[in-house]
Design goal:
mainly alpha
């Protein structure tokens, strides 16, 4: 089914330029190349890395098993946060898990918009997603998650006593969310894809806000 989707038809496996077996060998090769990096980390971080490998390996199967693969994707992407804290501080404090939760929810937001692009194709292929689960309420659900992310970030800034400059960047991030809501209002695939593409700017401004807010606090 992926080969018949205009957005994915030119991908290596979908276009038969690369076989699934070749892709698997490439994955194993990259995994082998990355493994020596663990030698530079402490043992607790090495143990945490097993969770990262498990999430990455099992994620592709979640689209067949649950309507929440976007949550699983966020869990996989965000796992770098507790690993980084453990590597640097030897512990995973509350703020690390706070950031982890924000990362998971943010991934659900932008990957749901991504899934909206292929919702009809996914329904035919039997692939599950939050875009299908939320149905006609997908825009409302995304908006609710966007609100929760902003509240969590605001609470985190207060907890860490960040400089008030952070809130300026958070305000800019809210503007990004509002723009995304405008783009997905008609559920048009092309506009939803554009909303997904501009989502990285939210991450950029929040990163800058956290960095400057921490440095100036």
């Amino acid at each position: 089914p992926a080969a018949t989707t205009p957005r994915t038809k030119d991908r290596p496996i979908a276009s038969a330029a690369v076989s699934p077996g070749e892709a698997l060998w490439l994955f194993l090769g990259l995994l082998a190349l990355a493994a020596p990096l663990l030698l530079f980390l402490n043992w607790p971080t090495r143990w945490l890395s097993l969770g990262a490998v498990f999430l990455a390996v099992t994620y592709p199967f979640t689209k067949r098993l649950t309507h929440l693969p976007q949550v699983y994707l966020g869990a996989a992407f965000g796992w770098a946060i507790p690993m980084a804290f453990m590597a640097q501080q030897g512990t995973v404090p509350l703020e690390a898990w706070w950031l982890y939760l924000v990362t998971v929810l943010w991934a659900v937001i932008y990957d749901t918009m991504y899934a909206m692009v292929d919702r009809e194709d996914d329904l035919q292929a039997g692939i599950k997603s939050t875009a299908i689960l939320f149905g006609n309420y997908v825009r409302v659900m995304i908006g609710g998650l966007q609100l929760i992310v902003c509240l969590l970030l605001s609470g985190l800034a207060h907890y860490l006593a960040l400089n008030s400059l952070f809130y300026l960047f958070l305000f800019i991030g809210v503007g990004n969310f509002i723009y995304q809501q405008y783009l997905i209002k008609d559920h048009q695939p092309q506009s939803c894809f554009k909303a997904f593409l501009v989502s990285h700017w939210f991450g950029v401004v929040i990163l800058l806000g956290l960095f400057l807010g921490y440095q100036l606090s």
